[in-house]
Each structure stands twice: as structure tokens, then as C-alpha cells.
Design goal:
9 strands, 313 residues, alpha/beta, 12 helices
């Protein structure tokens, strides 16, 4: 099997994966965020680490909208068209052409909640949602439409799927947890359901970059062929096998982004990876719980990936 076949075989219970695939993701410096420069840096990273999936980083942050100061101002949220995403789409086009023949190519996709937070700052967005979620929803609809424009263009360019990153359901995000069901979940699903219908390989990423979770119940029925979520829950932890069983799909992860990967020696990375592989579910992709720090040594990532590729169950 080549990398592409190995990854897709995870989704077919009748096939036995020939090896354990692995991939890690990080943000490149601003000079490599768009266009041909992004294409070349992603290829360099893919080749150096030997990873099994091409994940194109999303770097087109929604601009600050100073006109939004109170909940009813969300009606002024701008809608962004294809031209707004031009640099990102050029990167997608180049990487699909360069690497799709050998690996699955997916695109990072932030949730409408996350992108709305770019426009005002996350604290103000949360404040507005707690005051009047229905008013904020007028802006959330526009944000979702803008992101779907990007999604549809990526699909036209031939991507295999998306890495859908979601936030908003964390333990301490809202005083009223019901806000999630009013103003976050509907817009997540508007994008994810369309993606699920049009793409063959999607990863659901439950992101704990800002806050942690007491449980994952809000996300269990979210679409996605693979789940990537943290293993910390409240004051405890769950196993990788428990996460795979909970979401009823293959699990991606195992290593912590801020741990041995970021600052360990090659031997420490190999030992930590072996411990993860011994405990991994049968259908599994080695990875981190989220994007690793940009300064993480690429050789550490390569060491973990090589260890996974050589592992015999």
C-alpha cells in the first residue's frame, strides 16, 4: 500500500491496514502562509517527516470588525467571497496537484464560532452570545456562508476532505451550556454535513487549545471519518480505545503537543511513541492532541512517524 491507500483502508473494516499511519501538524512562519511559498513549505515538511496525510494549514484569519460592539451589531458581519481566500486556495491547488497521487490531501477548517471570534475577539463573542444568542446568529449565518464558499472551492480543486476543528462546547465556556445548541452546533453541522456528503476522508478535531472538556457528548454525533480529540476529561483521562469506542470511528492522536514531542530527545520520542502504540486501538493514526508548537523539531516528528511505520502489533 502507498500512503493514500493505507489511510483510506482505515475506513474499510474488511481491510487490514498494512502499517500504522502517522501525521503531525504545525503552523509555518507567515512568509509561508499562502500561495506557492505555502505549497513548497508543506511539501518540504511532508517529505522530511515521512507523514501519511497532507493537511493544509488554514491561515486566513477573519479581519477584526470594529462595528460589532453589541449583540445586535452582528448584522453588520461582512460576507467574504472567493477573492478573500485566494492565497489559501492557491496553496490548496498546488498541493493537490503535487501530492494527491501519493497521499490523502485535507484542508484545515476552523468552525464558524472560531472565525467569528477572530472578528471581535473571543471574549466579546462569548459575552454577546450570553446576552443575546439569536442576535449573534445573524452574524454566525454570514460567517458560515463565507466558510462554505471556501469549502466548495476546495472541493472543486480536488481535496479529499477536511480537518474540521470545533470549539465552544468546553466545560467553562458558557454560563448557560444551552448556548452551544443555539449558536454553535447548527453552524458546525451546516458545514460538516455538506463536507461529509461531498468528501471521502474527514477528520473531526475536538479542540482543547483554549479550554478543556468534562465530556464529549456534544460532539459524539458530529460527522467525520476519524476523530482527533484530547484524552484529558475534567480531572481525569480516557484511553485511546475508549475515545474510538465513544465516537465509533478510528482515533487519531496519542502524543501530547507540549510534551516529549516538543522538547524531548530522539530516544525519548521513540520510547513515548512505543508506549502509545502498545495501547492504541486497532484502527489508529498516530498524532498529537492538537497542532504542535511551530518550533517543534521536525526530526522529533520524523522519529515518531518512523517508529509507527516500523511497529509490529
Amino acid at each position: 500500500m502507498n500512503k493514500r491507500d493505507a489511510l483510506l483502508s482505515l475506513l474499510d473494516d474488511s481491510q487490514q491496514p498494512s502499517y500504522i499511519p502517522a501525521a503531525f501538524f504545525l503552523h509555518f512562519p507567515p512568509a509561508f502562509h499562502a500561495g506557492q511559498a505555502a505549497v513548497e513549505k508543506h511539501i518540504e515538511f511532508f517529505r522530511h517527516t515521512g507523514m501519511d496525510v497532507v493537511k493544509i494549514q488554514y491561515e486566513r484569519t477573519f479581519p477584526k470588525v470594529d462595528a460589532i460592539q453589541k449583540p445586535e451589531d452582528w448584522v453588520h458581519m461582512p460576507r467574504y467571497g472567493v477573492d478573500f481566500f485566494e492565497g489559501q486556495l492557491k496553496a490548496v491547488e498546488g498541493l493537490v496537484q503535487a501530492l494527491k497521487s501519493e497521499a490523502v490531501v485535507i484542508v484545515t477548517l476552523y468552525s464558524p464560532f472560531m472565525c467569528a471570534g477572530h472578528a471581535t475577539g473571543s471574549d466579546l463573542l462569548v459575552q454577546h452570545l450570553q446576552q443575546d444568542p439569536e442576535a449573534v446568529n445573524k452574524g454566525m449565518e454570514v460567517v458560515t456562508d463565507s466558510l462554505l464558499t471556501f469549502v466548495r472551492e476546495c472541493v472543486k480543486l480536488g481535496v479529499d476532505g477536511f480537518y474540521t476543528s470545533t470549539q465552544g462546547g468546553e466545560a467553562d465556556r458558557f454560563e448557560d451550556p444551552g448556548i452551544f445548541d443555539i449558536a454553535i452546533r447548527p453552524y458546525d453541522l451546516a458545514m460538516m454535513n455538506e463536507i461529509n456528503e461531498t468528501c471521502q476522508f474527514n477528520i473531526l478535531h475536538v479542540c482543547d487549545y483554549a479550554l478543556g472538556y468534562d465530556d464529549f457528548s456534544r460532539f459524539r454525533d458530529y460527522p467525520g471519518d476519524v476523530v482527533n480529540c484530547p484524552l484529558h476529561l475534567g480531572d481525569g483521562e480516557i484511553t485511546m480505545k475508549a475515545a474510538a469506542d465513544l465516537f465509533k470511528r478510528p482515533y487519531m492522536g496519542g502524543l501530547e503537543r507540549l510534551g516529549i514531542l516538543a522538547n524531548g530527545t530522539a530516544q525519548q520520542v521513540r520510547q513515548a511513541t512505543e508506549a502509545v502504540l502498545r495501547a492504541a486501538p486497532e484502527r489508529f493514526i498516530l498524532g498529537a492532541d492538537c497542532t504542535v508548537p511551530s518550533e517543534t523539531p521536525w526530526d522529533n516528528l520524523k522519529e515518531a512517524i518512523d517508529t509507527a511505520h516500523g511497529w509490529e502489533r
